[in-house]
Write a structure and sequence with these properties.
Elements lengths: L5 H21 L1 H5 L8 H21 L5 H25 L4 H20 L2 H9 L4
Helix pairs in contact: 1-3, 1-5, 4-5
């Protein structure tokens, strides 16, 4: 069985905590006490990010079992930046919301790969060893 170092374990927990508490502070207040109850695309995004916050909380306790949460975090941010933000930036520029989102996504794209134990991911998620 492939082990990870204590330092890597702490890095994973720190990344889960950053995601969880960031979303708990920004998304959950709107989920608990919304300005208005509307079933639209914003409420879908808030619900998904709210669920991501709860899963990240679980990652603090079970850092290796919840690795797919960090992989999801990295992949969706890469998709948004490459598929949406950069083309819009190149054509007409980003508005204030997109600039803020771009900055937040770049933080994740820079930090998450350092926390993920890539050898573990390859062994257990790609090669399928148990």
């Amino acid at each position: 069985m492939l082990k990870i170092s204590k330092l890597r374990s702490y890095a994973l927990r720190a990344m889960y905590a950053l995601i969880a508490f960031g979303l708990l502070l920004t998304i959950w207040p709107e989920i608990i006490i919304p300005d208005q109850r509307v079933a639209d695309q914003d409420s879908v995004i808030q619900s998904m990010l709210g669920a991501l916050a709860l899963l990240a909380l679980m990652g603090i306790r079970y850092p290796l079992k919840m690795l797919p949460v960090l992989i999801f975090e990295l992949v969706w941010k890469l998709i948004w930046i490459i598929g949406y933000a950069l083309p819009v930036y190149n054509n007409s520029g980003l508005d204030v919301y997109a600039k803020e989102t771009f900055f937040a996504c770049m933080i994740g794209i820079v930090l998450v790969p350092f926390a993920i134990p890539w050898r573990y991911v390859i062994e257990y998620y790609i090669k399928g060893k148990s």
